[in-house]
Write a structure and sequence with these properties.
Layout lengths: L2 H31 L5 H32 L8 H7 L4 H45 L1 E6 L5 E5 L9
Antiparallel strand pairs: 1-2
């Protein structure tokens, strides 16, 4: 059976999820500190980790299919099903992997959500400032990607 290979891939995916969490927290610190200069680099690093997770997911899927068929399960068996049908000590190890994945995914989701909120607030702050200073109200973008603007207040020197 390919149980050891599958476990190795699951360990690697756990490591990648921890790295993703770290990169998202770095991004969050930059956002919270207003250090937008490094935000594109941080975002690229998050994308690189996501690409690596995606690549490892292919390997995991192939191994899960092989192991599931060896255990008499459907080829699309879940990790919970593998826990229920794998022999000792693999069932305990897969259960640990499953718990760790659930925790890591919850953490990643929370940090990603917080980052989206920080980005939205930053965008709103910039938009509000531009409206006040520039005298133009922008209401997003049109279907062609051009700024959709409405005439707003203009700063005019009343002595002129």
């Amino acid at each position: 059976m390919r149980l050891a290979e599958l476990s190795t891939v699951l360990w690697r995916q756990r490591e990648l999820l921890q790295l993703l969490l770290f990169k998202l927290e770095e991004e969050q610190l930059l956002l919270a500190a207003g250090r937008s200069r490094w935000l594109p680099q941080a975002t690229r690093e998050v994308e690189m980790v996501l690409a690596e997770i995606s690549r490892s997911e292919l390997t995991r899927a192939v191994l899960v299919e092989d192991v599931a068929l060896e255990l008499g399960l459907r080829s699309d068996a879940s990790l919970a099903q593998l826990v229920d049908h794998a022999p000792e000590p693999w069932n305990d190890l897969f259960a640990q992997h499953r718990r760790a994945f659930l925790e890591a995914v919850a953490e990643v989701s929370n940090v990603a959500s917080a980052n989206r909120d920080l980005l939205k607030r930053g965008y709103q702050l910039v938009t509000d400032t531009l409206r006040q200073v520039g005298g133009v109200e922008q209401d997003g973008y049109d279907a062609n990607g051009r700024p959709a603007t409405l005439p707003g207040r203009r700063l005019v020197d009343g002595t002129v």
